[in-house]
Write a structure and sequence with these properties.
With 264 residues, this protein is of the alpha/beta class. Helices cover 50% and strands 14% of the residues. The strands form 2 sheets. Strands 3-2-1-4-5-6-9 form a 7-stranded parallel β-sheet, with helices on both faces. The chain has a two-stranded parallel ribbon with strand order 7-8. The radius of gyration is 18 Å and the shape is globular. Bound molecules: NADP nicotinamide-adenine-dinucleotide phosphate.
Length: 264
């Protein structure tokens, strides 16, 4: 098949925000490299993208918490001379207080949200900067702007993602490269996230949920404006504004009040 000459790689493309991102980029004519663990879901998406948009869509099944799989994805990025877009989106949440759960999940979370983001960003940016074009989106969360009981690792890794992306932005700006980076910080989004982590959705009012498609639209609009941090939806923009304005001694009691289930 003839390719479009510009490729995009999306991690966590087997569902939710990653799947919606892959569809939008395919609609814009990008050839896709689809990364996640569930190969069957990626193959189905690949067929759909090829049929609907006439693009190339390769499946790269990988568990990004495993060193050998991570290296495989890195090698694919380095070997691809036309990668113009990367979305570091794969992620998950957990339940429970840090010291009451096993260490396996927080360990995997840091490997996925932090280590995989470092390695794949590094693999992608070297080529993008040399070619003088490209977009890198790190899918963070509004959770990056605060802490809440039961979410120590999640909030910390997403805060790290925001700081890391800001650092990348400064490095890129220092050489006046046109490559764009963005930390995308969604609020509650209707995906498989809350099922996969068994967090559930009942504790969140219906009006607070946004669609994965709206999150992707906001991200792409933000990229065209060159926005470093993108918080989709007016409600969440206000939420983040308040979180950033209030001092920690007021925020922490509020976080405990709204996550009352962890209070003893
Ligand atoms: N949904 C929300 O409310 C929300 C809010 C703010 C931020 N986010 C962030 O948005 C991102 C996408 O989440 P989502 O809401 O779209 O949830 P989702 O539907 O559960 O998607 C998560 C994706 O990550 C992939 N993934 C998980 N572990 C992986 C691993 N070890 N290796 C490779 N891929 C892995 C999953 O694929 P496989 O299971 O096939 O590997 C899946 O494609 C995450 O970073 C999440 O933190 C979500």
């Amino acid at each position: 098949m003839e390719t479009s000459g510009r490729a995009a790689l999306v991690t966590g493309a087997s569902s939710g925000i990653g799947e919606a991102y892959a569809k939008r980029l395919a609609a814009e004519g990008y050839d896709l490299i689809l990364v996640a663990r569930r190969k069957d879901r990626l193959e189905k998406l690949s067929e759909e993208l090829k049929a609907s948009y006439g693009v190339e869509a390769q499946v790269l099944a990988a568990d990004l918490t495993e060193e050998s799989d991570l290296r495989k994805v890195e090698d694919r990025i380095v070997g691809s001379g036309d990668l113009e877009f990367i979305v570091n989106n794969a992620g998950f949440g957990t339940r429970g207080l840090f010291f009451e759960t096993g260490v396996k999940e927080p360990d995997r979370m840091h490997r996925l949200h932090v280590l995989a983001t470092v390695r794949l960003s590094h693999a992608a940016l070297a080529g993008m900067v040399a070619r003088g074009k490209g977009n890198l989106v790190n899918v963070s969360s509004v959770a990056a702007f605060g802490q809440s009981p039961g979410n120590a690792g999640y909030c910390a890794t997403k805060a790290w993602m925001n700081s890391f992306t800001e650092g990348l932005c400064l490095d890129i700006s220092a050489i006046r490269s046109p490559v764009k980076v963005q930390a995308l910080c969604p609020g509650y989004t209707l995906t498989e996230f809350h099922d996969a982590s068994e967090i559930g959705r009942d504790h969140v009012p219906e009006s607070w949920w946004i669609s994965a498609e709206d999150v992707v639209d906001a991200s792409l609009r933000g990229l065209s404006r060159g926005d470093l941090f993108v918080v989709p939806g007016r409600r969440y923009k206000l939420y983040v504004f308040i979180l950033k304005a209030l001092p920690g001694f007021l925020i922490r009691p509020l976080a405990l009040r709204f996550k009352g289930k962890y209070r003893r």
